[in-house]
Amino acid sequence: MLLLQSLLLVAPCLTFALAPHPTTVTIKNDHPLIYYHGRWDSSPGTWWAGSGFKLNVRNLRSLSLNLGPHTTLPLAAVGVSVDNSDFFTVNASAGTNIIPLASSTAAESDKSKSTVVRINVEGWQNNRINLESIVLNSDAVLLPYKSSKLSFQFIGDSLSAGQFLPQGVDQAWPFLVGETFKAEHRVNAQPGAALTDVLSFGNVHGVSFQFFKTEDTGFFFTTDHNFTTPWDFSRDRPSATHIVIHIGANDAAQAIPNAQFIQVYSDFIARIRTINPKQPIFVFTPWGWPNADGSIGQYYQGQYQLIVDDRKAKGDKNIFLVDTTGWVTFADVFPDNQHPNVAGHAKIAGKFVSWLEEWGLSPQ
């Protein structure tokens, strides 16, 4: 009886802890409002430089990515842009990765404000992120991302992939052109690869084969995914409105004869036309390999004109030759490898933007 009385006397003083309010919300990788772009496999994991995703979030104050075991070890360089800021690099690895937000965004008091975050892999190699989930502050609201009506598809090799650049593809001329026109843009460019389906500088396939696959040629050296799968072009959202091709340097390095190169290039365009039957295709001539003495090492001179002329003769009215002669000098390249440097890529982008504006294209 005494024990019961004691408990009754103590009972009014007891308090009960309430479950803490969650401070974050987890978005699974299959959420329909994650706007994926580029090439992703089913894990889902990225392939090809520039692949990534975009988010439109109301009241965003914190953001982190949970990446799975297929993420490149020890890390993958990821480009991040918040509300159209310049892209900055985050070194992402398997596990939880906090994405820095601008202080003005993190402290934003207007809960009606939405923030667009763009994330992509920068590298042409070591470029796999395996997205498991996205973690936001608990009162954030994921909104639909409104894509541009313009959508560039760039196809090429190291001269388009941003090889040797500090921020990879995010500083390469195709990416810069897409940004200037406020367009969606996909860059399928593989350093060392020929267009012709031959072994070239470690690439077991040429771009004429690999472009139609989910994976880039790095699959061959990947222990957890050493196979290819057909790419479903209906996953390109929106589908390409403009197609740009700059390729051939590695075909020349592999001594592919003119006639064979013309045939491979023509067949490649014909296959692209089965996917994009009417969209304009822009065929770049090479700017060549600039030398210190002012000379330019050229390859396949006059052959690109023949390719375009042949397509036009077959009734293709929406294919155009872009003559890049004189666009790149020795001052615009890294002296030890003759690839465009950061300023060189910006110069090429500026030249092509001017060309497109004269052709009739304007930002959407």
Compute the average pLDDT: 93
Assign an overall shape.
globular
- Rounded to the nearest angstrom, the distance between the terminal CA atoms is 83 Å
Order of helix and strand elements from N to C terminus: HEEEEEEEHEEEEHHEHEHHEEEHEH
Uncertain stretches:
1-19
Helicity range: 10-25%
Number of strands: 17
Beta-strand portion reads 25-35%
Radius of gyration based on Cα positions: 25 Å
Helical segment count? 9
What composes the largest sheet? Answer: 6 strands, antiparallel
Structural class label: alpha+beta
How would you concisely characterize the structure shown here?
By secondary structure, the protein is an alpha+beta fold.
Q: How does this model look, in words?
A:
This protein has 364 residues and is of the alpha+beta class. Helices cover 22% and strands 25% of the residues. The protein has 9 helices and 17 strands. The chain has helices spanning 2-10, 103-106, 158-161, 173-180, 207-210, 249-253, 258-273, 303-313, 342-359, and strands at residues 24-28, 35-40, 46-58, 63-67, 76-82, 88-92, 95-98, 114-121, 131-137, 141-143, 151-156, 184-189, 242-246, 281-284, 289-290, 296-297, 319-322. Strands 2, 3, 5, 6, 8 and 10 form a 6-stranded antiparallel sheet that branches. The protein has a 5-stranded parallel sheet with strand order 12-11-13-14-17, sandwiched between helices. The chain has a 4-stranded antiparallel sheet with strand order 1-9-4-7, with no helix packed on it. A hairpin with a 5-residue loop joins strand 15 (289-290) and strand 16 (296-297). The longest helix is centred in the C-terminal third of the chain and has 18 residues, at 342-359. 41% of the residues are buried. Residues 1-19 have low confidence and may be disordered.
